[in-house]
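Hi all, posting the design record for the shared folder.

TITLE: backbone redesign
STEP: 1 of 1
STRUCTURE INPUT:
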């Protein structure tokens, strides 16, 4: 039985167009999931009483696997090398944490970022017994080193 999950979260500040932020999030998904899975949107108040929408999306099992394959196809070689070199900083337990550039996602690309507006991604794949997270990530094409 699979027990794989992917969690995505981003913010839409009052100065941003919510539909564009939603589109950026959807652009990271495989075509087969777009429109079929939708984020939960929670509106909160910021420090200066400004509205902030928090968009959260959780994918499980087969949908999570499809997302990981899509992400692997969208990340460029430079980002895959960066991921390989910084892997220890991005892993906690059996989960991998990424920050993807929200502006690039809106344009249909997946690019790692360390700062600025980001879509946070938590990947918790099912690792075959006797294998490691690093081996799994290499197998699915997220690492190329």
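Okay, here is what came back for every position:
SEQUENCE:
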């Amino acid at each position: 039985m699979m027990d794989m999950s992917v969690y995505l979260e981003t913010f839409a500040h009052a100065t941003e167009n919510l539909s564009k932020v939603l589109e950026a999030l959807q652009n990271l998904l495989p075509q087969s999931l777009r429109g079929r899975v939708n984020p939960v949107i929670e509106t909160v108040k910021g420090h200066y009483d400004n509205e902030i929408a928090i968009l959260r999306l959780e994918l499980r099992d087969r949908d999570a696997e499809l997302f990981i394959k899509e992400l692997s196809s969208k990340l460029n070689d430079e980002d895959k090398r960066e991921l390989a070199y910084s892997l220890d900083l991005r892993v906690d337990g059996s989960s991998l944490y990424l920050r993807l550039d929200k502006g690039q996602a809106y344009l249909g690309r997946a690019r790692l970022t360390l700062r600025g507006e980001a879509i946070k991604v938590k990947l918790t794949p099912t690792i075959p017994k006797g294998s490691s997270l690093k081996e799994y990530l290499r197998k699915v094409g997220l690492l190329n080193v």
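COMMENT: The chain has one domain: 5-139.
Let me know if anyone wants the other runs.
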